[in-house]
Amino acid sequence: MTSAAASRIKVGIVGGTGYTGVELLRLLSQHPYVDLTAITSRKEDGMPVSAMFPNLRGRVNISFQTPEKAALEQCDVVFFATPHGVAMNQAQHLLEHKVRIIDLAADFRLQDTQVFERWYKMPHACPSVLADSVYGLVELNRQKIADAQVIGNPGCYPTTVLLGLAPLLENGRKLVDTSNIIADCKSGVSGAGRKAEVSTLFSEASDNFKAYGVAGHRHHPEISEQLQRIAGAPVGLVFVPHLVPMIRGMFSTIYARILPEARDTDFQALFEQRYANEEFVDVMPAGSLPETRSVRASNHLRIAVHRPEGDDQLVILVAQDNLVKGASGQAVQNMNLMFGFPESAGLTHVAVLP
Description:
Largest sheet: 7 strands, mixed
Number of helices: 11
Distance between the termini: 40 Å
Keywords: Amino-acid biosynthesis, Arginine biosynthesis, Cytoplasm, NADP, Oxidoreductase
Strand order of the largest sheet: 8-9-7-10-13-12-11
CATH class of the largest domain: Alpha Beta
EC number: 1.2.1.38
Number of domains: 2
Main location: cytoplasm
CATH superfamily of the largest domain: Dihydrodipicolinate Reductase, domain 2
GO molecular function, one term: NAD binding
Oligomer: single chain
């Protein structure tokens, strides 16, 4: 582990041609303690990164390589911005070379291998590595992340739901009815990844709004597993994701019924106190309405707490950029902790408006 924040580390990226990959490149290219040394792609072997992503011209001067050429074993940390199933097949080899791993897919998110196999339709290749991995939601697992060798970077939807509910469930609190919590979540099209798919074609996604995964979504068991850890007991959750006609951004509206004995709770104060020292979680003033554009291209997540008409229904609004705090920014935040860097290093970008 790097002992001084001034030390530089060598960083590799496996599968850097997707949206999370280019976000990692954007963030890491401006990181004060990082040397980008390798990025892999079989199809684009030999192509300069800036030829695929012109926004990185003059910032990233390396080329894509096949995994065999990339010398990932010489890196201090390797990010996997790959489809599910890739990281777990390469993890053991890299760990033997003392390389730390941050996986942006689902290989190390779910500790229950049977649940993983049910939702991802593949056997888990390294359950022993999985058992020692850490779920990389910094605001919940900061100390464990700092000591981890393998990080399962959280999914984008789970980040909003877990941070939106954690203050209500931590420390054995009995504030809301945990048998029936509803998370109504919306994401921009980039959440589907950089691939050819009819549902994300411009003429299909533009000027349109729809729910999907209502019968079951892969992020549901991830959210449920983590909520149970937070609450210390199973939590009943209805999770419905939606696709909205924008490129990036995520907005979750969470509904929870306040228990009779908790009616006098100051929920605004509860959230403000919980996240008072969290640089990337902004609890907005009472009555606020966060917008996705207020976090666009930044690592910030904004929360507003509402209690309509002073009734027993609590409404929590959460906005984030699905590619930054929901993916690559969170991964860099994890890396900073793992190597003793300031947690905000490389992540201080202000949101883009308009």
